[in-house]
Amino acid sequence: MLSNGASLLQTVSGALLAGLSRAVTGVRPIWAGAAPNGRQRIYFANHASHGDFILVSTCLHPAERSRTAAVAGADYWNADPVRRFISGRMLRTVLVERNWVERTADPMQVMLAALDAGQSLIFFPEGTRNMTEEPLLRFRSGLYNLAAARPNVELVPCWIENMSRVLPKGAVLPVPLLCRVVFGAPVALEEGEDRKVFLDRARQALLALAPRKDGTR
Questions:
Q1: Cα distance from N-terminal residue to C-terminal residue, the chain
Q2: pTM, entire model
């Protein structure tokens, strides 16, 4: 449970980062299939930059942003004191251990605990940053497991456009470029639906939001 001081720091930090994100990227949300409705959600998105979750968070209403946490890898964000302070104090992050050999906590239980505490999540179903030429990597099982365990939480696909060019791997300072986040229609796990079928369907729902080569959607 966060103290009032820590909660205030996260609120202020979130507002400052949202302002900086808008200044650098001019980001604007496109609510193509889902509109803000106050429901608890899992925003699942493509992942190519450490700034992805900040861009999605920036697009949310302040009240929604204040209860939405990004799921991030503990191996990266716990690597040094600065990252630990940023993830633990400044940002709303749910840290999961990705190394199944060395982990001390089940990532699924960590995420479910955050949902049960009333948080919405920003989730990257590829499991890692996509550094390939493919638009989207194969989805891992996490999104299916979350959908099966908490069927009342909306699953909203979000396509993040251009953030990998604003903050590419290894970069410290962002490059000013216009970005967009496209929010699609919610995807629901159907009764008895096979895991692979659901993950393929969710992946296609996210890919459908990506811009075509001619710049249209």
A1: 42
A2: 0.87
Q: Letter for the amino acid at 168?
A: P
CA distance linking residue 98 with residue 126, whole number of Å: 12
Question: How confident is the model over 38-75, as pLDDT tens digits?
Answer: 899 999 999 987 778 888 999 999 899 989 999 988 88
Over residues 129-167, the pLDDT tens digits come to 888 888 899 999 999 999 999 999 999 999 998 766 656
Beta bridge partners of 181: 29, 160
Structure tokens at 54: 């900040």
Contact 159, 202 (CB under 8 A): no
Distance of CA 176 to CAs 27, 30, 48, 49, Å?
11, 20, 17, 14
Asked if 104 contacts 97 with a C-beta cutoff of 8 angstroms, the reply is yes
Triad 64, 65, 71: Cα angle to 5°: 115
